[in-house]
Amino acid sequence: MLKDRALEVHHEVTHDMANVVGSLFLLTNRLQTVMDRDFEKKGLTTKQWFMMAVLSKLFTSPPKLSDVASSMGSSYQNVKQIALKLEKNGYVTLEKDPKDQRVIRITIVPHFENFWEEQVEEDVALLESLFDHFTGVEISHFVDYIERLSIAIEKR
Q1: Read out DSSP for 72-131?
Q2: Which of 83, 81, 80 is closest to 92 using CA atoms?
Q3: Which of 17, 67, 91, 99 makes an SS bond possible with 86, Cβ 3.0 to 4.6 Å?
Q4: Is 56 exposed, middle or buried (0-12, 13-18, 19+ CB in 10 A)?
């Protein structure tokens, strides 16, 4: 009897974990759809915005595309395609590293800085609308859970 209950609990927990993973995929798709709709007015996609956020928050000098890809959790080829579109729209420049011609570095340009200055209020409004039903403690726990899941994913 006790063994049956233990098996039942294990099955419920496994089901809940599968629901978490499925919900994460669903939320990611929905968030991207909402953000793509908003950024479309500016001629951007959510992935382009994300690359710009990574560039502005994580790097103080022009990074290698491979470093940006790693920071974004994406492939080099995907990041290069996004960077080429940003370059075409005047947000960044792509240049070969003078010390190693095989390396491509991405540099932000003034138009990029102007975009972020104008974007701050919209980003804050988006975040507030997404998290207005959460307490500060809940958000803190949420961040902790995401970090722990990220660590588990990194180990795979």
Answers
A1: HT--HHHHHHHHHHHHHTTSEEEEE-SS-TT-EEEEE-HHHHHHHHHHHHHHHHHHHHHH
A2: 83
A3: 91
A4: middle
Residue partners of 5: CB distance under 8 A and separation at least 6 = none
CA distances in angstroms from 149 to 9, 101, 111, listed in the order given: 21, 37, 36
Give the tokens for residue 116. 């972020």
Hey, what amino acid is at 14? T
Rounded to whole angstroms, the Cα distance separating 47 from 85 reads 11
CA separation for the pair 107, 31 (Å, rounded): 28
Q: What does the H/E/C string look like for 7-51?
A: HHHHHHHHHHHHHHHHHHHHHHHHHHHHHHHHHHCCCCCHHHHHH
For residues 123 and 133, give the distance between their C-alpha atoms in angstroms, rounded to a whole number: 17
pLDDT confidence band for 94 (50 / 70 / 90): very high
For residue 8, what pLDDT band results from cuts at 50, 70 and 90?
low
